Amino acid sequence: MKARPDVRAMLLKRYPAGLFNDAEFEALARVLTD
């Protein structure tokens, strides 16, 4: 897994809190960082 904190922070700023659940967010982060 290559997820980076900056990607997570960017997504949290771009999308409203609660839009993704934790599992969806982790899966999305993996896709974006692979």
Chain-wise SSE layout:
Blueprint: H1 5-14, H2 22-33
Plain-language structure description:
By secondary structure, this protein is an all-alpha fold. It has one domain. 65% of the residues lie in helices and 0% in strands. The protein has helices spanning 5-14, 22-33. The chain is globular, with a radius of gyration of 9 Å.
Overall radius of gyration: 9 Å
How many domains, in number, for the residues? 1
Largest sheet: none
Helix count equals 2
From the helix content, strand content and strand pairing, which structural class follows?
mainly alpha
Shape: globular
| Mean pLDDT over the full residue set | 75
The rounded distance between the terminal residues' Cα atoms is: 8 Å
Helix content range: 55-70%
Short summary:
The chain is mainly alpha-helical and 34 residues long. The protein has one domain (1-34). The protein has two helices and no strands.
What brief labels describe this structure?
2 helices; mainly alpha; globular; 65% helix; 34 residues
